[in-house]
Amino acid sequence: AVIDGEGKVATLNPLFSQLLGVAASEAPERLFSAVCDAELYRAAGFDEMVEATRRGFDVVAREARWTNADGAAQVFDVRSQQLDENGHVLLVLTDVSQIERQAEQIGELQRYNANIIQNINSALLVVSPSRKINYANSAAESILGVEFGKLPGRRVAEWFRDDETGVHLIVQTLMDGVRFKGAETLVTREDG
Asked: How many CB atoms lie within 10 A of CB 86?
């Protein structure tokens, strides 16, 4: 939406129009505060944002939380930019509700996967290309005889020595992408 120097709507794009429930053709010349939902107007802090933008201040993007007419919670990234010396200000609302919901879902999946990984009976090590352990589940810590949380950052060669070819299968996988299944190896524990 573009707001003029008097706080009236100069133009309202179709998405803003849909969000506010006002036809784009009906909005021009009306005060933006009268066109905009009062809750959204307050949540976004439009008065302060428009005034600071007109005065030439760098206005930091804001987050506005709002419950729309259907009762659904929405989250917006709100930004403003001065367009000209006549006081016209561009207001931009980006609906980030879906991004926020997806971030929550990803967090739930990460916690679920971490639960699975920690509770499987098999040892699981994640090894970086630099041959250091990035992650180990509790079964790996137990098998390797290391206290909880003490494996990350340590070199995998401390436990897995090279085989008869001179290169351990883990190193072959890291270097060449070699896959192996069902291989056996001798593990050297810290306690001997």
From this structure: 9
How does strand 125-127 pair with strand 62-67?
A: unpaired
Helices assigned H by DSSP within 36-176:
38-44, 46-54, 97-119, 138-144, 169-176
Task: Quote the CA–CA distance of 21 and 31 in Å, as a whole number.
Answer: 15
CA 163 vs. chain centroid, Å, equals 42
Task: Provide the 8-state DSSP code for 57.
Answer: -
Integer CA distances (angstroms), 159 to 134, 156, 177, 190, in order: 15, 6, 21, 8
Q: Find tokens 């804001």 and name the residue.
A: 62
Cβ contacts of residue 128 below 8 Å, gap of 6+? 134
Give the pLDDT band (50/70/90) at residue 192.
low
Look over the chain and give the mean of its residue pLDDT values, rounded to a whole number: 85
Phi, psi dihedrals of residue 125, rounded to the nearest 5°: -120, 135
Per-residue model confidence as pLDDT tens digits over 154-168: 988 888 776 666 567
SS3 85: coil
Q: Find the mean pLDDT for residues 118-138.
A: 86
